[in-house]
Design a protein that fits this description.
The strands form four sheets. Strands 9, 10, 11, 12, 13, 14 and 15 form a seven-stranded mixed β-sheet that branches. Helices cover about 15% and strands about 50% of the residues. A hairpin with a 2-residue loop joins strand 1 and strand 2. It has two domains: about 70 residues, SH3 type barrels; about 110 residues, Cathepsin D, subunit A, domain 1. The longest helix has 23 residues. By secondary structure, the chain is an alpha+beta fold. The protein is built from four helices and 17 strands.
Length: about 220
Amino acid sequence: MVGMWLLLILSAFAGVCEAESQDERKPARQVVLQGILGSKALLLVDGQRQMMSVKNAAKQGVRVLRIAEEQVDVEVDGKRRRLRLGDSYSVTGQYKVRESIEVIIAKNNTGMYSTVGSINGLPVSFLVDTGATSVAMSAQHAKRLAIDFRVTGEPTFVGTASGVSEAYRVVLDKVTVGDITQHNVRAVVIDGNYPTQVLLGMSFLGQLEIQRDGNIMRLKKKF
């Protein structure tokens, strides 16, 4: 009789361990706020774009609760989260120590990978460019970001679609995309209106693992 009870206890214990193991293997849900358009929020849910409003039913386990000027409250699989532009939240059923941070970027309507983030704490729209050696921006971008490149920058020249242009090498205190933040990032400010969108070049991307999967790009930073 004792042996039978011991067998039952061991079986129950094994079942609990197996259930916990299966729960730990559940993939993380990733939700990124890519834009706010009036009463609608553009979310990237597990790599798929969803335009949602408060009136919409839940999609892929995600429901919009409130939309404000610069932030959106969402419910992800029953867990409430507050997202700001460029924020990325991974939600799992059980806490585990993270070994890496992953950001998912989708292609835009022109087939390019674009996303939102920040430079020195100010919001920026990035175009991912693995062919650019550094982060690149126009003089207009630099002015909006309060980067005094003519005083602090190092003069140089760069080649653009319209020829050779004057530029200035600078160092950005902080560049953030999703949950990934890097400090002292090399950048170049091009005198004029080019590029029209800030280029996220290899001075930021070179520190990350880059994977392309169909219409999405995964940026991964390991601890």
